[in-house]
């Protein structure tokens, strides 16, 4: 298990938020805008290594980019600029300008923390002609059991950051530099074909390939094999899904996976990301996207088994009642082997999630109660 508890302070919409007693498989439910995706982003940042990759992913995903204008154009290099101010609960140029995310592993273990804060360079005098402009920087520091790593990102006057203009500070003397916790973030129907090809190449001809086939058969039981071919061999461009082909029972021709619907693409992305996150964390935004309610129980069954086998902790979100009741059904129908699962309800303006254990999920589903 990667984390048992999450604490978020000053990050995006959360002034303070706690998520307690995490299970191996966790489903986050709640209304639109209550912060479910923000929780996934906080974990993605917490599990990262000292670079700007998590920040780039989450800001670009939300469209939080800005063009360079006026003085900013002279300060920063051309290219993509990330609107860093959006990461803070309060305007960091007015308030103290800091956020913190902490993940606790076990009781008595402080776990892992990432702190982000904005500061200005000390005043400097340039050639005796007065003080040079003081530039703001974003300092990101990861700490786990005394080991610490820091990353600095230069900011413009308006608080944007050009990804190219980065610098990594030297590691502290407190211990071994922190490493990356294997993490995959699956967005709703947004996994790119090149990512799928890369992940599949890593598990081809291994036992994990059998799990992928099992997952795909949730949607199409006739699938026998899956393979990656060059896009030109599939007769399609490199940005399309034609490079992933499947063979089905009773068919002589190979079938582009894109022709089998969005649901099977989503299942493929989920199962490959789960394999790639072995020993770490899988984050899934709107896990039920593209799936009919009739296959959700099978999807959860495969996910729970694979998560336990690969030692992956899953945090997923949904708006669907069918999704959480399907998860409850596999707990209810378990043959004495109840999966380690929980539902966490996020409510707008409430600083702690409401947790439903596996047994409480089953009871709520049987009584027709709503946990969303």
Topology, pairings included?
Layout: E1 5-11, E2 14-19, E3 25-29, H1 36-47, H2 53-61, H3 71-75, E4 81-83, E5 98-104, E6 112-120, E7 136-144, E8 147-154, E9 160-162, E10 166-168, E11 183-186, H4 193-203, H5 207-216, E12 223-228, E13 244-248, E14 255-256, H6 262-276, E15 281-284, H7 296-310, E16 313-318, H8 321-332, E17 341-345, E18 354-357, H9 358-366
Parallel strand pairs: 3-16, 3-17, 11-15, 15-16
Antiparallel strand pairs: 1-2, 1-5, 4-9, 5-6, 6-7, 7-8, 8-10, 12-13, 13-14, 17-18
Account of the 3D structure:
The protein is built from nine helices and 18 strands. With 372 residues, the protein is of the alpha+beta class. Mean pLDDT is 79; it is low at 165-177 and 232-239. The two termini are 25 Å apart. The strands form four sheets. Strands 2-1-5-6-7-8-10 form a seven-stranded antiparallel beta sheet, covered by helices on one side. The protein has helices at residues 36-47, 53-61, 71-75, 193-203, 207-216, 262-276, 296-310, 321-332, 358-366, and strands at 5-11, 14-19, 25-29, 81-83, 98-104, 112-120, 136-144, 147-154, 160-162, 166-168, 183-186, 223-228, 244-248, 255-256, 281-284, 313-318, 341-345, 354-357. The protein is globular, with a radius of gyration of 23 Å. It is 26% helix and 26% strand.
């Amino acid at each position: 298990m990667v984390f048992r508890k999450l604490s978020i302070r000053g990050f995006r919409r959360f002034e303070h938020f706690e998520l307690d007693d995490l299970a191996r498989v966790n489903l986050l439910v709640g209304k639109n805008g209550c912060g479910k995706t923000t929780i996934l982003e906080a974990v993605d940042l917490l599990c990262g290594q000292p670079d700007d990759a998590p920040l780039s992913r989450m800001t670009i995903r939300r469209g939080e980019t800005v063009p360079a204008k006026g003085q900013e154009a002279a300060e920063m290099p051309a290219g993509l600029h990330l609107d860093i101010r959006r990461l803070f609960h309060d305007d960091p140029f007015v308030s103290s300008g800091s956020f913190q995310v902490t993940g606790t592993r076990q009781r008595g273990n402080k776990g892992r923390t990432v702190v982000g804060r904005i500061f200005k360079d000390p005043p400097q005098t340039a050639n005796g002609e007065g003080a040079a402009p003081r530039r703001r920087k974003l300092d990101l520091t990861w700490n786990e059991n005394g080991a610490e790593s820091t990353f600095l990102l230069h900011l413009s006057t308006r608080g944007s950051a050009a990804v190219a203009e980065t610098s990594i500070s030297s590691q502290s003397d407190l211990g071994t530099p922190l490493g990356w916790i294997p993490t995959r973030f699956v967005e709703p129907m947004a996994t790119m074909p090149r990512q799928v090809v890369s992940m599949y190449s890593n598990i081809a001809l291994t036992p994990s390939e059998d799990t992928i086939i099992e997952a795909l058969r949730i949607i199409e039981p006739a699938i026998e094999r899956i393979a990656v071919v060059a896009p030109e061999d599939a007769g399609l461009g490199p940005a399309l899904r034609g490079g992933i082909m499947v063979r089905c029972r009773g068919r002589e021709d190979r079938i582009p996976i894109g022709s089998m619907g969005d649901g099977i693409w989503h299942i493929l992305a989920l199962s490959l990301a789960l394999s790639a996150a072995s020993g770490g964390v899988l984050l899934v935004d709107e896990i039920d996207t593209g799936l009919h309610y009739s296959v959700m129980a099978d999807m959860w069954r495969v996910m729970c088994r694979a998560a336990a086998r690969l030692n992956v902790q899953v945090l997923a979100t949904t708006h669907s009642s069918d999704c959480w009741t399907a998860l409850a059904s596999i707990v209810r129908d378990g043959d004495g082997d109840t999966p380690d699962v929980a539902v966490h309800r996020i409510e707008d303006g409430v600083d702690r999630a409401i947790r439903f254990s596996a047994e409480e999920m089953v009871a709520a589903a049987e009584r027709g109660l709503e946990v969303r």
